[in-house]
Structure prediction request, 294 residues.
Amino acid sequence: MNRASEKAIGVFDSGVGGLTVLEALRQTLPHEDFVYLGDTARVPYGNRTPQTIVRYATSCARQLVERDVKALVIACNTASAHALSALRSTFHIPVFGVIEPVSQMAVDVSQSGIIGVIGTRATIASDCYRRAIANLSPTARVYAQPCPLFVPLVEEGWVDTLPARIIVKTYIGEFLKSMNLMQEGDFCVKNYSEKKKENGIIDTLILGCTHYPVLRDAIDMALNDYGVEVTLCDCGVATARALECALREGEMMHTRRELGTTSYLVTDDPELFTSIGRSFMKQPPVNVEHIDIL
Ligand code: DGL
Prediction:
């Protein structure tokens, strides 16, 4: 057996959001061990400059590489958008971001080739999704909308609340207006179904931030209220599939039959991480250890 296959997979995010990606990784690769690092002392990354994001992401990756992981997953859209190439050239193990896998998923499911992306300010400003999708499908059209209030809503645990539903509906409404699908004062998109049959309208939406799958019900509800039926693409599920293929091809899959383990590291309060993490995973994080990153 290839010894590298027995090592853990390192996963990091700016905080708790990457747990949505970890959840998908654990379901797809149940026999693997994972070390998850949440940089909770420096969250959010989404409003920071590219230089700061690269610096933070590099220091997180270094912590995991020092723990001898066999591969790294950047379970954060913002860090994937800005730091993927820096990490690939700094560290000599396979590094996976979330942008390419979920872009591939969106291109595969979209009939109309008109794809929406929602994410943090830094992710949308990087234009990474437009470039990734253009590489895969040059004729595709991409519309993007930053939704900066979604992360604090989730971090506060305000997922299933009236303020969350109002904020989500407001952002989705602004997004539809920016695509000229609604005007000021409209309650819904006119003739959406007819346009969809003709493949002339957005039919796919990338949840381009780790926190957004937690708001999936509110996002679904808002789209439904506006009369829009799109397929939602989740970066965790897409990244898990890409990682599985790469590990298989590189003969780096763990070969045991027992379930793997997950350990957790955070740069701020472990208890807070555990309590917020409950809304992200079926089995909430346990034995969370605090580390300092300079
Ligand atoms: N994890 C980040 C992302 O996916 C969201 C949280 C943050 O802004 O740091 O973009």
In short: The first strand starts at residue 9 and ends at 13. The chain has a mean pLDDT of 95. The chain has twelve helices and ten strands.
